[in-house]
Write a structure and sequence with these properties.
Elements (H helix, E strand, L loop, with lengths): L33 E4 L4 E3 L5 E10 L2 E3 L3 E4 L10 E15 L6 E2 L9 E5 L3 E5 L3 E3 L5 E7 L6 E5 L9 E10 L5
Parallel strand pairs: 6-13
Antiparallel strand pairs: 1-5, 2-3, 3-4, 3-6, 6-8, 7-9, 9-12, 10-11, 11-13
Length: 179
């Protein structure tokens, strides 16, 4: 701390080496600095409303996605960056019989087929034409509960019957085996 004097026996509220707090959400960066912008993918309010990260608004009509690398302008002007969120819901996928694999957004190794997705966002879902279960029985894809093809893009919409949820079921048929 700086030395005190008889004229000023107390230290100022923010002495040297003390971080002066900025307004909530404000940060100082040097011009030319690159900053990685990220936000929580989903957040739930205290009343259970889900909000899903949508995009970064970088100003001047520019946007960015999750983990956008932004360069601080050289003109020292104040910048406003806004993380935009959209209302979300819980999406789930089921196979009949249970335990078969589905490909969601290009992956078929999800531990669980339950997601939090933004209303209006588009995702890809795919049910393999044929697959084996854990016991080696072969199954053939029959249909999705929405009547769509085995591989399709779905735009998330809230179900009026079960609010705050989105559910699709892939039905499979057991094939006969000859030993």
């Amino acid at each position: 701390p700086p030395p005190t004097s008889p004229e000023n026996p107390t230290l100022p509220p923010y002495g040297p080496g003390t971080m002066v707090p900025l307004c909530d959400g404000e940060r100082d960066f040097l011009p030319g600095t690159q900053v990685l912008l990220a936000a929580p993918t989903s957040q739930t309010t205290n009343v259970g409303k889900i909000w899903i990260f949508d995009q970064w608004d970088l100003g001047n009509g520019k946007t960015g996605g999750q983990n956008t690398l932004w360069t601080v302008p050289d003109d020292w002007s104040p910048q406003t960056l806004t993380a935009r969120f959209v209302p979300g819901l819980r999406a789930s996928f089921v196979t009949l019989p249970t335990g078969l694999k589905l490909k969601i957004d290009g992956r078929d190794n999800w531990q669980y087929l339950n997601f939090e997705w933004g209303i209006g966002h588009t995702h890809t879902v795919e049910a393999p034409a044929e697959q084996l279960d854990a016991r080696g029985r072969r199954y053939r894809f029959v249909s999705w509960s929405n009547g769509g093809p085995a591989a399709q893009e779905v735009t998330v919409a809230e179900d009026p019957v079960t609010p705050n949820s989105f559910r699709m079921v892939a039905t499979y048929q057991l094939l006969g085996q000859l030993n």
